């Protein structure tokens, strides 16, 4: 599943490729991708004649911004966008095609069919599902240590579980939570409200750095997108802890451990991320 850095890379790529293009018409061959409005004919009709002015992002949702409309799109497991010339053959699993007036097309392909699109008038999208309850945006300038401490530092759940909750901080999935906790030297099962101010500050910095590095790494895959592979895939970059079970820790050489936290496979170094039980913990 794409996490924030992957979606951010798709956003930047799409922004370069489709900003300024005007929609002539839209073809939908899998109605359930379109969540709003209910009627796909209405969806297609609404979009006709609108020009794309920017591509934004909120958490893992893309916001394709037009003059007078906003399309909120979530790629879920396998969703992919690609820009094609209209005469190019249409690949299997292509469910939505935005035909532009310049003869090119934005095609949405989704093998698993879990992706969603919601169409709104500008501003409306932030007060309704699926964006309304989303938490802090970690790559925004406004993401401060104070705000992070307030939102995360009060939670009585395990820190990993708190970080995965999109109502607190958006865009962190299983991979980058493990990476950020490793970078900050914090055990994933520590209780969020028992973290010290220093630990929260380290974690805050680690989240920003982990996500920024991943976005930078993602930039290198833009070339393949433009060069006619036609789609934006996931990119691999150096992960320091995730997926490295039993391999030596990059810091200390101890074997990386894997456990399950909040139902998710979790990687950590038992030596760099020690679990010190809080003294004040109540016995049940
Ligand atoms: Zn280690």
Automatic annotation (TrEMBL):
Q: Per its UniProt record, what SMART domains does this chain match?
A: Fapy_DNA_glyco, H2TH
Its protein name is Formamidopyrimidine-DNA glycosylase
Residue ranges annotated for the FPG-type domain, each copy included: 240-274
On whether Zinc is a keyword of this UniProt record, the answer is yes
Family (UniProt):
Belongs to the FPG family.
- Molecular function (Gene Ontology), one example: class I DNA-(apurinic or apyrimidinic site) endonuclease activity
What region holds the Formamidopyrimidine-DNA glycosylase catalytic domain?
Answer: 2-115
Q: Which Pfam families match?
A: Fapy_DNA_glyco, H2TH, zf-FPG_IleRS
Query: Which InterPro entries is this protein grouped with?
Result: DNA_glyclase_Znf_dom_DNA_BS, FPG_cat, FPG_Glyclase, FPG_N, H2TH_FPG, Ribosomal_uS13-like_H2TH, Znf_DNA_glyclase/AP_lyase, Znf_FPG/IleRS
Q: Which UniProt keywords apply?
A: DNA damage, DNA repair, DNA-binding, Glycosidase, Hydrolase, Lyase, Metal-binding, Multifunctional enzyme, Zinc, Zinc-finger
**Cofactor requirements of the protein:** Zn(2+)
Reaction(s) catalysed (UniProt annotation): Hydrolysis of DNA containing ring-opened 7-methylguanine residues, releasing 2,6-diamino-4-hydroxy-5-(N-methyl)formamidopyrimidine; 2'-deoxyribonucleotide-(2'-deoxyribose 5'-phosphate)-2'-deoxyribonucleotide-DNA = a 3'-end 2'-deoxyribonucleotide-(2,3-dehydro-2,3-deoxyribose 5'-phosphate)-DNA + a 5'-end 5'-phospho-2'-deoxyribonucleoside-DNA + H(+)
Q: Which residues bind DNA?
A: 93, 112, 155
Protein's job: Involved in base excision repair of DNA damaged by oxidation or by mutagenic agents. Acts as DNA glycosylase that recognizes and removes damaged bases. Has a preference for oxidized purines, such as 7,8-dihydro-8-oxoguanine (8-oxoG). Has AP (apurinic/apyrimidinic) lyase activity and introduces nicks in the DNA strand. Cleaves the DNA backbone by beta-delta elimination to generate a single-strand break at the site of the removed base with both 3'- and 5'-phosphates.
- The EC number(s) attached to this protein equal 3.2.2.23, 4.2.99.18
Q: Mind telling me which Gene3D superfamilies this protein's record contains?
A: 1.10.8.50, MutM-like, N-terminal
